[in-house]
Amino acid sequence: MKKILLRYKFPLTLILFLVISILSIYLTGLDGHIWSFLEMGNDGRFHVMRMQGLYESIKHGNFFPIVNMSFLDGFGYIANVFYSNLWLYPVAFLRLLGLTTVQAFICFYILINFVTFVISFVSYYIASQKFGKSLVFSFVYTLSVYRIFDMVRRFDIGEVLTLTFLPIVVLGVYEIFYGNNNKWWYLTIGMTAVIYSHALSPILIAIFILLVILFRLKILIKEPKRILTLIYSGLTSLLLSLGYFLPMYEQLKHTQFKLTNAPLIYVSQGSMRVHELVKFSLKNDLFEQNIGILMLLMALAIPIIIWKATPAIRDFGIIGEILLLMTTDIFPWKLFIHTPLNMIQFPWRFNMLVTILFAIVLASDPWKLLNSFWKKGVIISLTILMIFLAEFSLVTNHPAQDDSYAAFNNLDVYSIGAGQEYLPKDASLKQLRQTKHVPEVKSGAVKIKNFQQKDSAIKFDFNATESSKIDLPIIGYYGYSSNSSTGQVSAIKMDQTNNGLAQVKVCGKGILRVNYQKTPIQKISKAISLISFLIMIIWLFRQNKVSSKIE
C-alpha cells in the first residue's frame, strides 16, 4: 500500500485537492442554498454582474467588451477597463453551456480552489523539492481564514484571483533575491496574472518587494545582477500588461470619475485595532477580516523560531510581522491619506501577504517539529477541520444570509459597489435608476423614430428642424462613436449635467448610429501585450530546450 501511495503520490494529490476544493465550500454553496452577503453595496453582486456582462456580450458576438452593458439596465458601466475580464471567461462559457448564474459561480469557485491548491503546491515544490512541506503549504495557504473570508464573505473575486497567483509572485521574489535569479520570469508570470486579476494588489506586492530589497541590500550591493533581473522582470511585466494599463490611463485622462474625485474611505479609517485583530483571529471568524488562529499563533511563534531558519524564511517571517503591524492602527496611516497609498482603502488587505508569508514559514518548519509525515498529516487535518468549523459557524450564526439559488440568480443590474467608482463624478445612481431608457431631447426641435439598442449599439431615425441636443440612454465614456451615422451628427460628448450620459447634436434628417469603438490606444496596447506574450512563450521554450541539453 505504501509503495502504491509513493508511486502515485502526485495524481493522488490532485484527486485530494479536487475533493477538498469541493468540500471546503459545501456549507456555503452546494446544498441548494448559497451563503452570500448580497447587500447592494457589497463586492459580491458587483463581481457577479461583471460575469453576467461578459456572458451577455459574448452572446451578442462581442468577445472582448470594453463597456459592461449588463450594468445599470443598459446605460453601461466601464468596469472592464479597471477590472480585466481575462479570468472570467470560464464562467461566461459555463453560462453559454446552459448553467445558471449560481451554478456557474459555484463551479468557478471550485476551479479557483483547485487551481490555488495546485499553484501553491507546485510553487513551493519548485523552491524546496520537498513533497511533504509543499503539501502542508498548499493546505495551510489555500484553506487559510483570510482567503476563505475573501471567497465566502466578501465575494471579492479580484482579490481571490490575486491569492490564486500570489504563490508564483513569491516564488519569483525568492528566486531573484535568494535563489537562481536567472528564473526572474516566475515573478513576471505571477505579477502579470495578478495585474489582470485586481488593480490594487500590485501596489501591496510592490511594498512587499521594497521591503525584501531593504532586507537584502547588503547582498544586492555584492550581486547587482539580482537587481538587473528584477528590472528585466518588471519591464517584461509592463509589456505584458500594457493592454490593461494604457486603456485605464486613457479613460482616466478623458473622464472624471468618482474614483478619483470622491474617495469612499480614507486608508486611516480602514485600519484595524489590535484587540479586534486578536479577537476575530482567535475566533477563526469568517464574518470579519482577520488572519485566523493558526496564523495568529505563527505571528507569536516567529520571533522565537525564525533565527534557526534560512535567510529567505527569516526575512519572509519578519516582513510578514511588519505587514501585520501595517494592518493595524499602530501604523501611522493618517500620514498617507493624501498619497497614492490611499487607494488601497483597507490596510487589512495586507493580510493576504501576511497569510502567504506565515504559511511559508510554517511549512518550512525551521525547528523540525514536523519532521515526520504523520505530523504533517495532523497539521493538514487540523487546517481542514478548522475551516470547516469556521464555515459552519458562519452559516449558522448568520442565517439571514443563507440564500436560495433562485435569490442568487435574481441579479440587480444597479449593483456597482458601494463606491460607485466608475460613474462620472457628478452622476447619481438614484437618478439613473429613475431615468427612462429612451433618447431625451435637451434642446431644439427634433422628432425621433425607430429607437433600437443592442448591447452598446444605438440606432434611430431623426428629423430636426433646427440644431438639437439629444441625450442618449448610455453613459458617454470615451470611445463611443457616431461616425457611422448619416446626416448632420456631431461627435459624442458627455453631458456632465445629466449623469454623464452620451450627448449628440443633430440637424436635418438622418439616421443616428452610435456604438463603442475600441480606441487606437486600446488596440495597439493589447497588440503589444499579445506579441510580448508570444515572444516570451517562445523564449521560455528555447530556454527550457537549452537547460534540457545541458542536463
UniProtKB/TrEMBL annotation:
Originating organism: Companilactobacillus futsaii JCM 17355
UniProt keyword Hydrolase, yes or no: no
UniProt name for this protein: YfhO family protein
Transmembrane feature ranges: 12-30, 77-97, 104-125, 131-149, 161-178, 184-215, 227-246, 291-309, 348-365, 377-395, 524-541
Keywords: Membrane, Transmembrane, Transmembrane helix
